Amino acid sequence: MNISRRTFGMLTAGAAAAGLLSAPGLSRAAAKVKLRYGTAFPASHPGVVRITEAAKAIATRSEGAVELQVYPNSQLGGEADMFTQVRGGALDLMSTSGVNQTVVPVASINAVAFAFPTYDHVWKAMDGELGDHVRKAFLDAGLFVFPKMLDNGYRNITTGAKPITAPQDLNGMKIRVPGNQLWVTLFQTLGAAPTPINFGELYAALQTHVVDGQENPLALIQSSKLYEVQKYIALTGHIWDGHHIFCNNRRWQAIPAEMRTIIQEELTTAAVNERADVKDLNEKAMVDIKATGVEFNKVETAPFREALAKAGFYSKWKESFGAEAWGLLEKDVGTL
């Protein structure tokens, strides 16, 4: 069959175009997944450093098909704002601890005061059955939670005017807490005046005496330079705080399975590495903060636990979280 030169050219061009469209590189480009990850952690915190490393590894392993952009220091809004964005699909991923309690109440069970004596107790529970129970509750609320939590460390109380040595030292003290009912009721029960303030506004609130004190892990106290506007740190270790990493589940399920595997594996690696970083950083932070003149004191926790138990704090939260979740908690940490 005779084909004109013009027709041959058109066929050749069409075949070339078809070949380009099926080329692996262009297919990846056409299917590129762009994800945004928001966090209140400062850029220097291991919870940002390790996730940023994971983003690079994800890009490499996916050959550029997945781009994970990390926004630290509440750049995309306060934690409550970012949580709302993830639920609505405007933001893809975030990590947080407490603000999700209104939607997933059991998500704050790790914050039961003085529940975890050691990190062995923490990871046995949160990487195990209790963590699985919490992750299922997130999924039921439309949020996919990654299997490993980030460590935010044990929380300690800082103050500007006086040290905290016993429960009565908290009477009437305005203390910044996350916008989380468990934190609020904890400090109300101990006689303080808990005041929710976005973390990004905390330094200024302490500097201007909007609040008298706050409570956070040492690594975060150091990385956010809160020690510059506080004089005392009481090593209460009253709450072990961890950040769940989660994604809007509709968004997560829309990502190709192979890419989801890469993302999950790298974020899991990041979380495990971050845990070791935070442990080391907390130990170093105490030395460095002491060198600035801040005074540390170790408190006896039994009086705090006794005050909470007497006021019905534990029984109230057992009822709130439910018998199943509370049973899983006590299975790993003992009777509260």
TrEMBL record:
One Gene Ontology CC term in the entry: outer membrane-bounded periplasmic space
Domain of life: Bacteria
Signal sequence residues: 1-29
Alphabetical list of InterPro entries matching this protein: DctP_fam, TAT_signal, TRAP_DctP, TRAP_DctP_sf
Gene3D superfamilies to which the protein is assigned, alphabetical: Bacterial extracellular solute-binding protein, family 7
GO biological process annotation, one example: transmembrane transport
Record key words, sorted: Receptor, Signal, Transport
Residue runs in coiled coils: none
Main location: other
Subcellular location: Cell envelope
Kinase recorded as keyword: no
Pfam families registered for this protein in UniProt: DctP
Family, as annotated: Belongs to the bacterial solute-binding protein 7 family.
The name this protein goes by in its record: Tripartite ATP-independent transporter solute receptor, DctP family
Record organism: Rhizobium hainanense
